[in-house]
Prior knowledge:
The two termini are 36 Å apart. Helix 7 crosses helix 9 (241-268). By secondary structure, this protein is an alpha+beta fold. The chain has 12 helices and 10 strands. It is globular and about 65 Å long. Strand 9 (286-288) and strand 10 form a beta hairpin. The protein has 2 domains: 1-171, no CATH class; 197-321, no CATH class. The strands form 3 sheets. A 6-stranded antiparallel β-sheet has the order 2-3-1-6-7-8, with helices on both faces. Strands 4-5 form a two-stranded antiparallel sheet.
Amino acid sequence: MTALETRIYSHPPIPVADISKLEMLLLTNVLECSETEEGLVLFTDVGPTNPVRVPRSELIAAFHASVQYAEDPLTIFIAGRVLALLPAGSNTAEDDAMIDIDLSQFPWPFVVQGIVARSADLREVTIIQWMNHPSQRPESFGASVSLITDKAIHHATSEDLLARFRLQDNALPPAASSAALPEDDSAMAGGAALDPFTVKELETALCIWEAMLYFRGLHQDGRPVPDNIAGMSEVWDAVGWQAMRSHVREIVPFALDVHAAVFEDLEDEGFTFDFDFAPAFVETLLWSEDGAFREGEPEEFLEDVMVAVRRHRQDVVARNKSSFNPASRQVDS
Length: 333
């Protein structure tokens, strides 16, 4: 059975000065990391790697460079589980050998917790994880969130949160009709308490948010992005994370309408919702501090979305071909 596709994103960036050489070596091998001016952003589009393979010489150099953190759990783990198994002495062949490090007993979030516990400025790191099966079966979708502090690693899956919401909902009194509410309270009838997301809307919001995080990471990493994405990132910096999450909720109905309008084209050409449509939809939107909006006539927007879908798929295919082309890798190096 094909494994679930897993995407992970962390916030805030971890100050590089707070990360030991040993921690940096492991984190950048477990995850796809991006170093920005604010620090190291942890993310992956393919799921964490375990075990990781690192050159023996790099592992030993990182270990010795982290001697001031000798009492940290990671240093103790590596010293006891890995370095103790390495052959004595050194030669060129041994230094070039690849070492497998099994982190099943020391998962990467514990590495992050060690950094948070040491840092003078970093109080917490949040981890958002999104999973689904390549078949796009509805029952395969899931998400989880983690809060890492110096005290603990708090974790909840989407199923945990939905179960908690259901318990809370069962404890609530029946909702009053908007006609029975005072005039000043009428707006509350349209709030989240009386207008909950359906599962489909929740999945849509998660896909849009995932695409936004991905594009923002590219922009922060200095990689080329469309002008619309650069504008989104600038608005993000201006209004903050909470406002951007609120904007996502506001555009979910619009996203579903657009998807319904182009569904047949997507299905005919073999495109998926989360991997193809959601990024193209986000890429086609314009942004202001009041939220996202479309430009031009509806038909033009639909065409622009499909153009972005096809271009995105072509870019992925081109990258994959390049990664499997030995000549291309030799030129790049």
